[in-house]
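Lab notebook page, bench 4
Experiment: in silico fold of construct C2
Operator: M.H.
Input chain length: 373 residues
Purpose: comparison with the prior construct
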Amino acid sequence: MEQTAVHPAVLEHDTAAGANGSRFIRACLRLPTDRTPVWFLRQAGRYMPEYMAVRRHHSLLEICRTPEIAAEVTITAAERLGVDAAIIFADLLLPFTPMGLDFEFVADEGPRVHAPIRTAAQARALRTDRTQDLLYVSRAIEKVAAHFKVPRPAEGPNSDPAGDTLGIIGFCGALFTLASYMIEGGSSRNYVETKKMMYGGGAAWGILMEKLVTVLSEYAAQQVEAGADCIQVFDSWVGALSVADYRQYVLSPTTELVRHISALGVPVIYFGVDTASLLPAMRETGADVLGLDWRIPLDHAWRTLGYSTAVQGNLDPITLFAPEAVLHAHVVEVLAAAAGRPGHIFNLGHGIVPGTPVEAVLAVVDQIKRSSG
């Protein structure tokens, strides 16, 4: 496949990446790094004893909405694992509350939205003027950024003698995923109500997309101002769409969101699950990095993209339960598929699941650091 021209964002952020001193940010922009950077989706979570100790005293939403605790959880995970980036501890659905959409987490069920959006009138009633209510996330980012502002010592003779600055990742949910929670009222297997609204031809879907773009753009701006030097956009459920539906109903507003975030001067990671068929369309959003799940070989995905973006991934999270030799071989396979090309960020193909042995996660980090990258 013919390679696509270098995305302009690489040139726009080049100088900033050099000044940043972060191998993670440099990799986001497909610039050379001393080794492959590594971090993990859900690296602060229910597999980690330190996190579970906090959860014994606080609910998920209490942690998210208390900057001191959210920062502590974020920092503890990054330092315990020795990774190259810290992603702020928050939840995808936090913007729902200032938009006027109440939700809760129900044991063994997940999130439940009390009054799902099913009509254009309900979509119009969603508010976009209360994003300041989300500033607790930015305050947590400020604490994390201050904690990690001093570069870490150089790892070896090939590392920058000035050391590496840990990447600080902010994030938000993506449009289809958040819309599906709003419309379905929670998790879904078939997204019947969501697709009914999409296909219905009425005003509701467009209104919902517009409102979400407005809120998420401001939310991301708050995080960047607080010290996030990258924003990851999570589209967990977008793999439920065909390529044609993605292009017709989701691509344009998602592109608008990515452009708003890119204009803040930070790279954007766009991640979805079960999206192998959607990757060429997702590239058109202009995101600097595409997250890959484990269902597609990394080298095949990157080649399909014409090497025009950085890629993140894509170890199957369940291999962290495998015997040591099997896990080691799978990590080697991912690194071999990347072939040392600038622009690979090692990660999982989805989040760390509860019960994952912490020792396995640490072993992967150690293996990455010992590899030539």
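Observations: DSSP finds 15 helices and nine strands in the chain. The CA atoms of residues 47 and 356 lie 5 Å apart.
Next step: discuss at group meeting.
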